[in-house]
Amino acid sequence: MRNRHFPMPRRQAGIALITALVLMLAVLMTGIASARGALQSTRAAAYERDRVLAIQMAEAALLDAEHDIAGGAAPGSARANAILAGSADAFVGGCLGARPYSGLCVHDADANRQLSRLADDAGPAIAFGTFTGTTLPTGEGGLPLEAPRYLIELMPAPGDGQLYRIAARGVGSMPGARAAVQAYYHMPSAGAHGRRVGWREIGNWSALIVAAAE
User: In angstroms, what CA-CA distances link 161 with 78, 125, 155?
Assistant: First the structure.
């Protein structure tokens, strides 16, 4: 007996078409979701890389500030002597001392106010290498957009020597990626080498990722 092919009823043909369209739509939505997830992962990885770069630049500014405290490019200069002596003429309110004492601050009990000064693009923080002569490439490719900056605050110091609190700011290669670190630095009065005292992250603040040592 020959096989006979019977035409599919019109109603069944319509259901099959709808089913195929639904399956195609499901595949399309799955593809879109996968692409979106991959894009978000790429953005998250780029942000994390830039965040790490900003923190590294802030750390570079911290080291530059320590070099500045130790005499910078001109040991024995008016600035170097004023820093080591804790001169009241050099460390002034609002960190608004004139050059060569720019970036030097009298102690402020409100740490947030100090960080606000550091975050201000037009504020008193001084650029990396200003008093040490150190250079740092910026502005191209994966390099930071600008040089990191820092402030040096004179703290009440028990015992001999001087105690400073350094606030340093770094930026990444993309706008908005910024980080700030703080550390205490003790310089003995007997001419011995200074040393850093601790470092820890304390969370987010304004547009910055803020880390501090206490």
Answer: 18, 24, 11
Q: Cα dist. 152→9, 32, 77, 173, 178 in Å? A: 86, 51, 17, 25, 19
Q: What is the pLDDT of residues 130-155, one digit of tens each?
A: 999 999 889 877 889 999 999 999 99
Beta-strand (E) ranges in the chain? 104-105, 126-127, 149-155, 162-171, 178-187, 195-197, 200-205, 208-212
pTM of the model: 0.75
Cis peptide before 158, with omega less than 30 degrees from 0?
no
Q: Tokens 């004023």, residue?
A: 82
How does pLDDT run across 84-105, given as a tens digit for each residue? 999 999 999 999 988 899 999 9
Q: What are the residues facing 185 on neighbouring strands?
A: 164, 196
Residue 179, C-beta contacts closer than 8 angstroms, at least 6 positions apart: 51, 54, 55, 57, 58, 169, 170, 171, 172, 208, 209, 210, 211
